[in-house]
Write a structure and sequence with these properties.
Mean pLDDT: 61
Low-confidence stretches: 1-37, 100-129, 207-223
Helix content: under 10%
Oligomer: single chain
Number of helices: 2
CATH architecture of the largest domain: Sandwich
CATH class of the largest domain: Mainly Beta
Number of strands: 20
Distance between the termini: 6 Å
Radius of gyration: 21 Å
CATH topology of the largest domain: Immunoglobulin-like
Structural class: mainly beta
Largest sheet: 11 strands, antiparallel
Length: about 325
């Protein structure tokens, strides 16, 4: 028997898929994610010029992410830390900014005000010109991170030769609560567009993926609307005579400005995070599989013809 707790549908994924970036500037720090690309629900960013020197420009960058993890972190653990790597490249793949690089910074956790176990602040110790600061908040499975780079050098001729040139900022953030559990890892790539200003000045402004409430944050909105995932989970035991034969049907998913081209399915054990079933990307919106009794998380991801994606996760209990 399959039961779905009422009011337990949470949005889990809105990772903007971008054109493939040239590998030259990214190879130095890419890592194997082992299939665990933890999903971004909201991704906001801002960048502005704060000074120039010797053909370079000092830029203040701020990023904010909201995501759903597969488990709650113990941010109150003294061993908690965060590892961060970021790189910004231009459209030709030339590196503009690197934070972390080959030797990423592991930053110890300092509890935020009030000492709440779900809220922490990560700061790099010592004198750091970049003044990197990461704030992490957690409410149940929802995690919010804010990354601030007070300063980073950007090569103006490469970044803004033309007012319409874009750059791409990719950030990998790994939060480890110091326990034996698998660390939570966020990976996201955000496009930035150079905007000319009066007096020959310039700035980079993030182009945000539209969030689930339909807002765009403080920066430019997307050129392509994300598809919306709608799916149902049914126990097909009576119809097929096979115990705990489960069907996931995402045919009600829709895309208002395009066409959904692929569907992907993942099923994980809720407690161990072990993946027990995976299908896709595929053209069919349906998949059928067998599950042993237990508690699971069912993930469905859809991608439209413009490369935008969206996922939704539901919790499912399978009983004898």
């Amino acid at each position: 028997m399959l039961t779905l707790p009422l009011r337990y549908t949470f949005l889990a994924f809105s990772l903007l898929l971008l054109p493939a970036l040239p590998a030259t500037a990214l190879e130095q720090w890419e890592t194997d994610l082992e299939g665990y690309e933890f999903p971004i629900v909201k991704f906001h960013g801002q960048a502005g010029r704060v000074g120039t020197s010797e053909g370079k420009s000092d830029v203040r960058i701020r990023q904010a992410h909201e995501a759903s993890s597969l488990r709650e972190l113990d941010l109150d653990n003294p061993g908690a830390n965060v590892t961060i790597q970021s790189i910004m490249v231009d459209e030709d793949g030339r590196e503009l900014v690197t934070i972390g690089g080959e030797d990423p910074s592991v930053i110890p956790l300092l509890l935020g005000r009030g000492g709440k176990p779900w809220k922490g602040s990560f700061t790099r110790e010592g004198r750091d010109r970049q003044n990197l600061r990461v704030e992490v908040e957690q409410r149940h499975s929802q995690i919010r991170t804010v990354i601030r780079f007070a300063r980073a050098l950007v090569d103006v001729p490469l970044a803004c030769l033309r007012g319409d040139e874009r750059a791409f900022l990719t950030t990998e953030l790994t939060v480890d609560d110091g326990t034996d559990a698998y660390p939570v890892r966020f990976v996201a790539t955000q496009p930035w567009r150079c905007k000319p200003r009066r007096g020959g000045d310039w700035e980079l402004r993030g182009q945000n993926a539209q969030d689930h409430a339909g807002h765009h944050g403080h920066n430019e909105g997307p050129e392509n609307r994300r598809p919306q995932v709608k799916f149902a989970i049914e126990n097909e035991t009576r119809e097929n005579g096979v115990p705990n034969l489960i069907e996931v049907d995402a045919s009600r998913s829709e895309d208002h400005d395009g066409t959904i081209v692929t569907y992907s399915f993942r099923v994980l054990e809720r407690d161990t995070e072990a993946m027990v079933y995976q299908a896709g990307p595929q053209a069919s919106p349906k998949t059928t599989f067998w599950l042993a009794p237990g508690e699971y998380l069912v993930w469905v991801t859809v991608v439209d013809n413009d490369g935008s994606s969206h996922s939704e996760t539901r919790r499912a209990n399978v009983r004898d």
